[in-house]
Amino acid sequence: MTDMKIRRALLSVSDKSGLAELGKILAGMGVELVSTGGTAKALRDAGLAVRDISELTGFPEMMDGRVKTLHPKVHGGLLAVRDNAQHAAAMEDHDIGGIDLVVVNLYPFAETVARGADRSEVIENIDIGGPSMVRSSAKNHEYVTIVTDPSDYAELHAELGSKAGSTSLDFRKRMAAKAFAATAAYDSMIAQWFAFGDQGQMFPDTLPVTIQRGAELRYGENPHQKAALYLPVGPHARGIAQAEQLQGKELSYNNYNDADAALELVSEFADGPPTVVIVKHANPCGVASGDTLLEAYEAALKCDSVSAFGGIVACNQPLDAATAAAITEIFTEVVAAPDASDEAKAVFAKKKNLRLLLTGEFSDPARGGLMMKTIAGGWLVQSRDNGQISETELKTVTKRAPSEQELKDCLTAWTVAKHVKSNAIVYVKNGVSAGIGAGQMNRRDSARIAAAKAAEAAEIYGWDAPRTNGSAVASDAFFPFADGLLSAAEAGATAVIQPGGSIRDDEVIAAADEAGLAMVFTGMRHFRH
Q: Edge to edge, what strands does the sheet with 425-429 contain?
């Protein structure tokens, strides 16, 4: 027989949501309630009879509540194998009663850290007795039911109702698995705080990672792959994973990946003029700022309208109806913005498959943190690329210094290049991307591809010349030879921003001078693989 009757329950929770209702359900089934401190008070305030843990153990709670459940009469009642003769005899000899149900959730450690509590308060919110009871109960799930999440109270109620006050082994196994995951996540958060917050380590000997499944996705990058979205447990920055989806189909693996790339780039312009980013396959294919969001979208689209089909659009300001209408003129997978007007929402509502994501406040692009990438047999871990360059940090290396507008476009191109797969070349003119070359095996080809896209746009829209004429060009890493720079000059670029640092810098600078280019070095590289 695998069903176990619930006769005695031990309840000790920090999150008291649903506690009174659960207590009434258990008491109505004749279950004896044993509890501690604030939980016992909450149950009594609800009119329920409760036995204090100190009465069960014969010892008072002591040391400011640090010691209350760490006792043989608690853990003996949890760990005893009920049909083991020796265990049964020990229980009888030491007057240990069985505990059939444990409802525990742990001290709010993550919340305490998140609100900036001092070190002593953080330490006091490391739960000891709670995890011990959870682990004892979960280990002995053949006989004991453990519930750690208030969202499971309703299922517990249904289980007890369908089993005449008992629980099934299948239910207990599922709750035990969830309980061990809860204590593992809790310990991981504590280890993270000690390593990162308390001791300032970047790469601790053991890197604890605490994530929980948010949703299973339809498939991965391809239909034959499985995929799921996992979310961090504890304090974390907001991102595309926390955006509110107002409409459209469920987001796919590729949608999340591309929308993340778009949001990370547009957040670089959070405090700037209206700016729109269009992304396809995790690479920007159009970026523009303008006097209005509509103007910015139209300019971004014209950078590469072919690639924009089926792309992701991200805006740095709330969407208005006019911009929404323009976006819906071509097939767009996802639109992300801090907010949207009711009129804009009504426009998007006519496109039922388009996903509209409201992100709220953007995360700081200069924030710290670690990034992880799986490789066969291990992980690569690095700090986020949060490097930023100001105008005062640039070094002019050519005879001609850039003009005010060229310098402004250089910085915009440099910001965009940071988010383009290497090798990256980005042309910008008057705050608008004119051509983007991404992911090539050499920098010269990236420069040529970006120029070819600009020439194609000029042909599509009937311009007299490509927008690369008079543009600034950014290279995410140094030019190892002059050929890439000369390709940019042939496309019409008049200013260049690049890291510098090549053994052939002198050759490249001489070529720039000969072509009449202004060039600045950043001293910083932005590879993105």
A: 244-247, 355-358, 332-337, 311-315, 275-280, 283-289, 432-437, 425-429, 472-475, 495-498, 518-521, 395-396
